[in-house]
């Protein structure tokens, strides 16, 4: 049986006082605080060594010390044999006379023609005085007071009061009795083991407090980061460790940056109102760099020297339409616009907006983990390597790559993970097409990806419904594991 130092000391103290129905306060008197005793007792109870019974007990306590009025009058009366009320009024205040005489009459002292006649009622007064004297030492339990006497004292304005109290009594179980008979060795207890104690071997002289993590204890909920924030922190760390720089931009762009610069044709279905949130104000966001714009326009219309383009008439006003960014690839292209020489290693984690219907795997507002990697010898297998490395570091078991299509990458792929028996799409990736890079005069391969954060989080946290991430259910938040 594992007992802490305190438990042992309380047990021994208990054994010294008695085995059955020992008042907890008696144990406290042996040199503990009440908290120590209660703490030890509750553990001793769990360990089957004591039984604790609680009883609601009534006791009576003194509020103030005073000489009883009947005592004052009685002493004078005893001396004089008899005394008139008016004579008493000369000696004592009015209340004392009134109340005092009332009590004396009750004890049987006769009154004749307005005069009190002496009669020995000493014992009646003493009974009350004795009880009050006892109360001066502390409250007196109901069982130890005469019912009539206490009733009388309670009637005297605020002299004594009744108090209810939970009393606890402890009884040793046979197991505890046996333990005490065998002898309980009390050693000093250590709650912390220091290197010095280990090196010197002194730890042998102490008892080490053991922890049982299976023992019941009230739950304590400290503050912690939201699980999603924890995941974002982890992703950030992974990319930074892999040598990437983080970039964040804005939510509002014109279609030029979100789409045209990425060689998305102006009649692409993703540009439709039902897929993209356009803004009515401002009416348009002008394209600043007209030179770059002309190159993009030419690429869309005819493909310049390297491509056939999309073969349509490109419109500046369509490109000026303001919208909520539909993907963070807008961050990548803007970063490339400013950083055209290798090496480029950039990532961003940001909110994007799409007119999606909300369901268990779709949110109209979600977060993308975007990245680009430009280097002279970057190639498709490196892209797969980066993505594989990332998901491995995130602790993902099984991912697969599938060929896919995006207007701005070639080749393109999709990353999928097996979750609840279904392949779930986690994001897209590819190598930027020459039609995207040519207007920027970039000569080297750019690997690019855009991954969904919430789906990744949903899998990491084992959620069935992606919406749970944004419902602040306090129990779920409290119980969420630290990642
Ligand atoms: N932008 C794509 C999406 O939102 C993902 C992507 C990014 C694909 C970069 C290829 C390259 O789904």
How much is the average pLDDT? 92
Largest β sheet strand count, sense and barrel closure: 7 strands, mixed
- What is the CA-CA span between the terminal residues? 36 Å
Q: Low-confidence runs (pLDDT<50, min 5 residues)?
A: none
Work out the helicity level: 25-40%
CATH architecture of the domain at 229-479: 2-Layer Sandwich
Bound molecules: phenylalanine
Oligomer: single chain
Number of helices: 19
CATH C-level of the domain at 229-479: Alpha Beta
CATH third-tier fold name of the domain at 229-479: BirA Bifunctional Protein, domain 2
Structural class, by secondary structure, is: alpha+beta
- Strand content of the residues, in percent? 15-25%
Work out the number of β strands: 18
The 3D shape can be described as: elongated
Quick structural gist:
The chain has 483 residues and is an alpha+beta fold.
What does this structure look like?
The chain is an alpha+beta fold and about 475 residues long. It is built from 19 helices and 18 strands. It has helices spanning about 5-15, 25-30, 35-45, 70-80, 85-90, 95-105, 120-135, 145-155, 175-180, 195-200, 225-240, 255-260, 290-300, 315-320, 330-340, 380-395, 435, 455-460, 475-480; strands at about 20-25, 50-60, 80-85, 110, 115, 140, 160-170, 190, 205-210, 245, 250-255, 320-325, 345-355, 365-375, 400-405, 410-420, 420-430, 445-450. It has a seven-stranded mixed sheet, sandwiched between helices. It is elongated. The relative contact order is 0.09. The model has no long low-confidence stretch (mean pLDDT about 90). The protein binds phenylalanine (PHE).
């Amino acid at each position: 049986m594992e007992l802490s130092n305190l438990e042992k000391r309380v047990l021994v103290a208990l054994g010294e006082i008695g085995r059955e129905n020992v008042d907890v306060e008696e144990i406290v008197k042996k040199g503990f605080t009440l908290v120590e005793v209660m703490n030890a007792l509750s553990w001793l109870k769990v360990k089957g060594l004591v039984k604790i019974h609680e009883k609601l007990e009534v006791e009576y306590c003194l509020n103030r010390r005073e000489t009883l009025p009947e005592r004052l009058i009685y002493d004078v009366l005893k001396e004089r044999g008899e005394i008139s009320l008016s004579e008493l009024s000369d000696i004592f205040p009015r209340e004392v006379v009134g109340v005092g005489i009332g009590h004396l009459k009750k004890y049987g002292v006769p009154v004749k023609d307005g005069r009190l006649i002496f009669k020995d009622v000493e014992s009646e007064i003493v009974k009350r005085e004795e009880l009050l004297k006892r109360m001066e030492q502390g409250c007196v339990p109901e069982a130890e007071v005469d019912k009539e006497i206490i009733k009388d004292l309670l009637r005297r304005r605020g002299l004594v009061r009744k108090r209810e109290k939970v009393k606890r009594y402890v009884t040793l179980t046979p197991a505890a009795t046996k333990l005490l008979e065998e002898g309980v060795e009390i050693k000093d207890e250590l709650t912390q083991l220091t290197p010095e104690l280990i090196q010197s071997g002194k730890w042998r002289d102490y008892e080490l407090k053991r922890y049982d993590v299976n023992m019941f204890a009230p739950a304590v909920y400290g503050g912690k980061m939201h699980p999603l924030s924890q995941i974002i922190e982890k992703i950030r760390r992974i990319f930074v460790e892999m040598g990437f720089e983080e970039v964040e931009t804005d939510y509002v762009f014109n279609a030029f940056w979100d789409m045209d610069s990425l060689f998305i044709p102006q009649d692409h279905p993703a540009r439709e109102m039902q897929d993209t949130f356009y803004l009515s104000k401002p009416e348009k966001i002008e394209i600043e760099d007209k030179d770059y714009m002309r190159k993009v326009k030419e690429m869309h219309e005819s493909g310049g020297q390297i491509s056939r383009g999309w073969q349509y008439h490109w419109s500046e006003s369509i490109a000026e339409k303001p919208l909520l960014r539909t993907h963070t690839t807008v961050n990548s292209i803007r970063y490339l616009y400013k950083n055209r020489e290798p090496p480029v290693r950039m990532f961003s984690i940001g909110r994007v907006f799409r007119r999606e219907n909300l369901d268990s795997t779709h949110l109209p507002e979600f977060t993308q983990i975007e990245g680009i990697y430009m280097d002279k010898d970057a190639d498709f297998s490196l892209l797969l390597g980066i993505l594989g490395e990332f998901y491995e570091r995130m602790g993902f078991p099984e991912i697969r790559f599938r060929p896919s299509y995006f207007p701005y990458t070639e080749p393109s792929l999709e990353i999928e993970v097996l979750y609840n028996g279904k392949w779930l799409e986690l994001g897209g990736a590819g190598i930027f097409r020459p039609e995207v890079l040519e207007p920027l005069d970039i000569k080297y391969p750019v690997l690019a990806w855009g991954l969904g954060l919430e789906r990744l989080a949903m899998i990491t946290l084992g959620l069935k419904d992606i919406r749970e991430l944004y419902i602040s259910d306090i129990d779920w938040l409290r119980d969420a594991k630290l990642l």
